[in-house]
Amino acid sequence: MSSNDIIVSLDIGTSKVRAIIGEVNNGVINIIGVGSADSEGIRKGAIVDIDQTVQSIRNAVDHAERMVGIQISDVYVGIQGNHIGLQTNHGVVAISNEDREIGEDDIERVLQAAKVVALPPEREIINLVPKQYLVDGLEGISDPRGMIGVRLEVEATVVTGAKTAIHNLARCVEKANLHIAGIILMSLASGQMALTKDEKMMGTVLADIGAGSSTIAIFEQGGIVATSTLPVGGEYVTSDISYGLRTQTDQAEKIKQKFGCAMIDDAAEDQKFKVNRMGSNMEKEFSQVDLANIIEPRMQEIFHLIRQEVRRLGYADKVNGYVLTGGTVTMPGTLALAQHELESTVRIAVPDYIGVRDPAFTSGVGMIQYVSKYMRGRTVSAPKKSVSRKASSPSSPSKPGLFERLKTMFSEFI
Predict the structure, then answer these.
(1) Three-state DSSP string of 80-129
(2) Keywords assigned by UniProt (predicted)?
(3) Residue-wise pLDDT tens for the chain (414 aa)?
(4) Are 63 and 36 in contact, with CB atoms under 8 Å apart?
């Protein structure tokens, strides 16, 4: 990686599309631009309207571009959903160099060997994550470069997804006149930012509670071992408030953000607000306690479903704690409620960068960290202001075979 690189991450969520621009100076990341736009065309984390999604992506990217004053052409895109699958695989190669020193070519070949898995025709490899390397039977090697050996092996986790979901996501980004530098599993990116090395080793659940869905990723022995997506999130809380207070959904969302509290015990009776009721010009006054009586049962249900899903995945007794992230967990009282419902140690992960100190930005910032650490040599050079975004349009001959390239992308995660 050169001393000064620009990495742009694109987090396409149910409520917001976020474009984050990170600058890498000698290995140190600075967040220099953030663009956010209301997400249209996404339901429960899945794309349901291509054109609306494209417009949301354009709005977010334009916002980020205006903040920094550069032209964005290449982006790393996050993907998640219930179609994601994990499986382990093994790769073996013989060292090709005469002096038996392991080089980049050998690592590339062994990672390609690990990608040889039997997949149904409707599935595709998204990421390949090495767990460990073995040199002549010696285990536990994280980086075999420069070692001497005859036989190189790798144990890796193969992340696969549904072709239709991958291609629809890629289509939206392409139609927004952007070039996909890579697709990254959101849970891997969030884990890079949110979890410590010890948390990844000991067994931790990373729960990303967004607007339309909650993604659970279980980390153990230093890597991701299971992932699942539940179709519940902050939108359900907003819907409950809308029904309970008989008001419009957009007003219910504003009330939730300004006065919402996840625990009745933490709510203030003297905190009052007025609501325009549907079918009437009259305003009615409510207290924060009234609001908490609506919010707490739904948040309890979300944490109950998360715990139930961890048990279904077979990790109920192997988990030593939970880490929460996502826009929904910013609500006051969420941490205390989660500790009570999950009956475990719980903390909320917040990115430690100026301008993005909010759990909603964990995935986007995590993608930038992930790229800078595991994808050396594949980062995007700093875009020039004079570069026309038309140069990276889907019809341009400079971008042949995007979907073919996605199949062989991300082979270097060291």
Answers:
(1) CCCCCEEEEEEEEEECCCCCCECCHHHHHHHHHHHCCCCCCCCEEEEEEE
(2) Cell cycle, Cell division, Cell membrane, Membrane
(3) 344 689 999 999 999 999 999 999 888 899 999 999 999 988 888 899 999 999 999 999 999 999 999 999 999 999 999 999 999 999 999 998 888 999 989 999 999 999 999 999 999 999 999 999 999 999 999 999 999 999 999 999 999 999 999 999 999 999 999 999 999 999 999 999 999 999 999 999 999 999 999 999 999 999 999 999 999 999 999 999 999 999 999 999 999 999 999 999 999 999 999 999 888 888 899 999 999 999 999 999 999 999 999 999 999 899 999 999 999 999 999 999 999 999 999 999 999 988 889 999 999 999 999 999 887 544 333 333 333 343 333 333 333 444 444 444 444 444
(4) yes
Round to whole Å and give the CA distance between 64 and 140: 41
CA distance 17 to 318: 34
- pTM value is 0.86
Total Cβ atoms within 10 A of residue 208: 31
Query: What's the angle, vertex CA 336, arms to CA 334 and CA 340, rounded to 5?
Result: 115
Number of residues assigned to the chain: 414
- Of the residues 348, 382, 406, which one is the last residue of a structural domain? 348
How far is CA 373 from each of CA 26, 177, 365, 376, rounded to the nearest angstrom? 12, 27, 13, 7
List C-alpha distances in Å: 141 to 90, 126, 149, 202, 370.
14, 24, 13, 19, 20
**Considering 105, 140, 160, which residue would you say is the last residue of a domain?**
160
> Same structural domain for residues 147 and 221?
no
Question: Where in the sequence is the domain holding 304, given as residue range(s)?
Answer: 196-348
Q: How far from the centroid of its chain's Cα atoms is residue 405's Cα? A: 21
Rounded Cα gap, residues 151 and 220, in angstroms = 27
Residues 202 and 219: their CA atoms lie apart, in Å, by: 8
268: which 2 tokens?
């203030």
Q: SS3 for 343? A: coil
In a domain, 44, yes or no: no
Helix (H) or strand (E) holding 68, with range, is helix 50-68
Q: Which amino acid is at 17?
A: V
Q: Is residue 173 part of a domain?
A: no
Strands 4-12 vs 16-25: parallel, antiparallel or unpaired: antiparallel
Question: What are the distances in angstroms from CA 232 to CA 174, 191, 298, 407?
Answer: 29, 21, 10, 31
For residues 133 and 353, what is the distance between their CA atoms, to the nearest angstrom? 33
Beta-bridge partners for 387: none
